[in-house]
Amino acid sequence: MAPTKKTTDKKTVRIRQIGSPIRRPESQRKILIGLGLGKMRREVELQDTPEIRGMIKKLPHMVEVID
Fold first, then answer.
1. Which of 9, 29, 65, 66 has its CA 20 to 30 A from that of 54?
2. pLDDT in tens, 23-62
3. Angstrom distance (rounded) from CA 44 to CA 5
4. What is the CATH number of domain 20-66?
């Protein structure tokens, strides 16, 4: 009998970029790239971790959390 794979329901968060990285500090651009963003109105779905939440808090003027 094959071993069964446990499926754990992990929370995710959807993020949309609403601000342009043009004329922003390099650190903010790197955070956007780390989130998987970089172009306007791009959306990503990431695992909801304290690290991701911290990155979102650094860029409240450039990203929004979608419900």
1. 9
2. 999 999 999 999 999 999 999 999 999 999 999 999 999 9
3. 26
4. 3.30.1390.20
How many CB atoms are closer than 10 A to CB 12?
A: 12
Q: Which residue has the tokens 């109105």?
A: 41
Tokens of 17: 């970029």
- Residue 55: name the closest of 39, 37, 40, 67 by CA: 37
Only one residue has tokens 């601000």, namely 19
DSSP state of 39: S
Q: Is 36 helix (H, G, I), strand (E, B) or coil?
A: coil
CA distance 62 to 42: 11
- Domain residue limits, the chain: 20-66
